[in-house]
Specification:
The protein folds into two domains: about 90 residues, Ribosomal Protein L25, Chain P (Beta Barrel); about 90 residues, Beta Complex (RNA Polymerase Alpha Subunit, Chain A, domain 2). The chain is about 30% helix and about 30% strand. It contains seven helices and twelve strands. The strands form three sheets. Strands 1-3-2-6-5-4 form a six-stranded mixed β-barrel. Strand 2 and strand 3 form a beta hairpin. The N and C termini lie far apart (about 145 Å).
Length: about 260
């Protein structure tokens, strides 16, 4: 896919000049690299903003039409406004056909829905990396690299060494011995949280049943105690009837 970028030379530099360009709907930029000196350029904001929506624009050799002369460049840096949808500054690098370039290209993940870890294990794919750095000649630069997940089981991962890099490309990370994880299948966090919450809830229910049973036992003991208590006759123990007291005194009753 050949993408063309139109730009013109910028003769005025400085913060004030850049602000005026932005108010006029232009984007200040810089073009560097190769045997030529860095050159200040400017581009149309709307045209550039629409190109930024293309994935290939970020990882492809671009044809820049600068003042009527075409040359091959790479997008190297993009500065956006903190909260507005506005491009503040852009950097491009010249490309030489006989020199290797180092660039990050996007990853395209395939067959995620039929991966055993998803289809059978109920896991979810976690994309640890969404792009990968490669080195190659400009003519060998791919637009993206595919990652096939059809054999990925639950708890397993795909590493850089398992990717199929196109001919003429290589991974600098692998050359340094860094076989990083690209994607993995994990158990959904929602399931783990639900299980963690269910256990304390069950313990609380058991504890509540135990408290209720203990309270019932205490109530039952109180009722049995009330039934076993003797009835109050209104007489004190050891009290004797008046007639018995008189007989014990030995004195005859007065008639």
């Amino acid at each position: 896919m050949q993408i063309e970028v139109n730009a013109i030379s910028r003769t005025v530099n400085g913060t004030g000049a850049s602000r005026r360009l932005r108010r006029e709907g232009r984007v200040p930029g810089i073009l560097y690299g190769g045997k030529q000196q860095p050159q200040a350029i400017e581009l149309d904001h709307n045209a550039l903003y629409h190109l930024l929506k293309l994935e290939a624009f970020h990882a492809s050799i671009l044809n820049m039409n600068l003042d009527g002369k075409k040359q091959q460049v790479l997008l190297r840096h993009l500065h956006m406004h903190p909260f507005r949808m506005q491009v503040m500054h852009v950097d491009f690098q010249r490309v030489a056909k006989d020199k290797k370039i180092y660039i990050k290209v996007p990853l395209h993940f395939l067959n995620a829905d039929i991966a055993p870890g998803v289809k059978v294990g109920g896991g979810i794919i976690s994309h640890v990396m969404t792009e990968v750095e490669i080195s190659c000649l400009p003519a060998d630069l791919p637009e993206f690299i595919e990652v096939d997940l059809k054999d990925l089981a639950l708890g397993h991962s795909v590493h850089l060494s398992e990717l199929k890099f196109p001919k003429g490309t290589e991974s600098p990370a692998l050359a340094r011995g860094n076989d990083a994880v690209v994607a993995t299948v994990q158990i959904p966090k929602v399931v783990v949280v639900e299980e963690a919450v269910a256990a304390p809830a069950a313990e609380e229910a058991v504890a509540a049943e135990g408290v209720a049973a203990a309270a019932g036992a205490v109530a039952g003991e109180k009722k049995e105690g009330e039934k076993a208590a003797p009835a109050d006759t209104g007489k004190k123990e050891g009290a004797k009837a008046p007639e018995a007291v008189k007989k014990e005194s030995g004195k005859p009753e007065k008639k």
